[in-house]
Amino acid sequence: MDAPRRFQVLLASPRGFCAGVERAIETVKQSLEEYQKPVYVLHEIVHNRHVIEELRESGAIFVEHLSDVPQGGVVIFSAHGVSKAVERCAADLNVLSVNATCPLVTSVHRMVERYHAEGCNVLIIGHHNHPEVEGSAGRVSDGVQVVASVEEAEKVQVENPLKVGYVTQTTLTQSDISGIITTLKRRFPDIRGPRSNICFATQNRQDAVRDLAERTELIFVVGSKNSSNSNRLKEVAVRRNIPAHLIDDASDIDPQWLEGIRRIGITAGASAPERLVKGVIDWLKGYGDVEIEQLKGVKEHTHFAATFLPKKITS
Ligand code: 10D
Ligand code: SF4
């Protein structure tokens, strides 16, 4: 008979929900209590399948178009933020909008608006078609382009090379953006922009995975496939030559991944609930003895109060 398997499981710290995600989910929950159901949410409130399923069961209706919200209805804008056109359209359609955009994304919006008001072309370093990038680009009417790679940074054309500003998506890695920023600075020496807009929560979770990768042979990143920050956590591990898998929950685990593995690291993206991490640990317990160690990491104290809910539309 085979000897029982033993796993040492190391948990990254910090991991899971960030302050912006907690606030966004709380905003949906409060809205469900405050307004007559149903409450509509434009786009997934955060990019996590389990969070969406849970809120859907509580009465939230997720839509991709404002035209799917009935007149007089309530619509919540997701944590990733929206364009000015979406805000205007909601007002025109006479729907009550509740803004669950993370305040750190809103500060990127303000930066885009300021550069534009000062006559700059604005370059948004980030992923094409990601809702945060689309929302940031849509804060101004023109003069914005998305730059997703060094190749795109080499080719991008601006009206006046002396008047250019850039911002970045909040959930990238420093190594994703450094080559792009270097290229832009070489081409447009007067370009203005921050070191990055990568947020503290994204950075802390990446630093924690680096720590995890030093001590483990395999890493599970709990998070959904459309979650940018969760994908970046997997990349951080893979770049350190540690096999890593992005899993929605324990049911995604292929037991073959565990062949010859003793030390397993677990982390979770900023939109992944902690109960899913517990589910992975419980699943591993079904495979052998599990010894758990919680790594020490940066403590996060940031809390964003939930969105102020406007009064119901009565007419
Ligand atoms: O895809 P993502 O990482 O931007 O979003 P997710 O909903 O997974 O996590 C929260 C991050 C936000 C809202 C972007 F700031
Ligand atoms: Fe806000 Fe950062 Fe969380 Fe995005 S990952 S919601 S920017 S705190």
Describe the model:
With 315 residues, the chain is an alpha/beta fold. The protein folds into three domains: 6-17 and 200-294, 3-Layer(aba) Sandwich (Cobalt-precorrin-4 Transmethylase, domain 1), CATH 3.40.1010; 19-102, Rossmann fold (3-Layer(aba) Sandwich), CATH 3.40.50; 104-187, 3-Layer(aba) Sandwich (Cobalt-precorrin-4 Transmethylase, domain 1), CATH 3.40.1010.20. It has helices at 19-34, 49-57, 84-92, 103-117, 131-137, 150-155, 174-187, 200-215, 228-239, 274-285, and strands spanning 6-11, 39-42, 60-63, 74-77, 96-99, 121-125, 144-147, 164-168, 218-222, 244-247, 263-268, 289-294. A five-stranded parallel beta sheet has the order 10-9-11-1-12, sandwiched between helices. Strands 3-2-4-5 form a four-stranded parallel beta sheet, with helices on both faces. The chain has a three-stranded parallel beta sheet with strand order 7-6-8, sandwiched between helices. Helix 2 links the parallel strand 2 and strand 3. The longest helix has 16 residues, at 19-34. It starts with 5 loop residues before the first strand and ends in a 21-residue tail after the last strand. The model has no long low-confidence stretch (mean pLDDT 96). Iron/sulfur cluster binds next to helix 1, helix 4 and helix 8.
> Could you say which small molecules are bound to this protein?
(2E)-4-fluoro-3-methylbut-2-en-1-yl trihydrogen diphosphate, iron/sulfur cluster
Uncertain spans: none
CATH architecture term of the largest domain = 3-Layer(aba) Sandwich
Q: Which percent band covers the strand fraction?
A: 15-25%
Number of domains: 3
The CATH topology of the largest domain comes to Cobalt-precorrin-4 Transmethylase, domain 1
Number of strands: 12
Mean pLDDT across every amino acid position? 96
User: Main β-sheet: number of strands, strand sense, barrel status?
Assistant: 5 strands, parallel
From N to C, what is the helix and strand string?
EHEHEEHEHEHEHEHHEHEEHE
End-to-end Cα distance: 73 Å
* Number of helical stretches of at least 4 residues: 10
Can you tell me the CATH superfamily of the largest domain? Answer: 4-hydroxy-3-methylbut-2-enyl diphosphate reductase, catalytic domain
Helix residue percentage: 25-40%
Basic shape = flat
Radius of gyration: 21 Å
What class do helices, strands and sheet pairing give? alpha/beta
